[in-house]
Amino acid sequence: HGQILVDGLTVEAVGNLLGGQTIDQYLAMGLDGISTLNDLAGGVTVTLEDDFSAIDPAMTKGTTLTLQGEQAETYVRSRRSVGVGTNEARMARRQLSVQLDEKLQKDQNFAVDAYDALQPYLTTSMAKGQLVNEAWAAKDYTRLDTIKPDGTYQVGEDGFMEFYPDADALQQAVLQLFYEKVE
Q: Whole-structure pTM over 0.85, yes or no?
């Protein structure tokens, strides 16, 4: 589960899924890095819609808590078959990205520290210096809302949630991301 296989065929397949786009660089992180990423952000606060008390007694349904350490991985891994597309999951991802952005804004060394902490869980085509420079340059960008095409979720044969994008919605996302309308 912790191993990520990213190779030329994977990169090409993603490019083809996105209408033939060329993927210049990639970065992927295994689920084993979730605890580290969460802690780098300072912990993500969630109200649990599911009961995880069999794994962690503090994680009962209805409880609002700031996930710390292994709780973040428990939350993500245990939810693999439920709630992936829920508002709760979207809000947790949004909070995580905002908190990481704030840390980067305050500390130029945060990107270096984050890379060093996450390196065992990353698969990337970028060298450390390039990745850190890209993160630092991106701190001044305006973060737009995440574009997520419509589609369906289903539990795969391996027990993990799979997402199947709607072809028309995916095409609209590609047009929005990669093309400018000519007036």
A: no
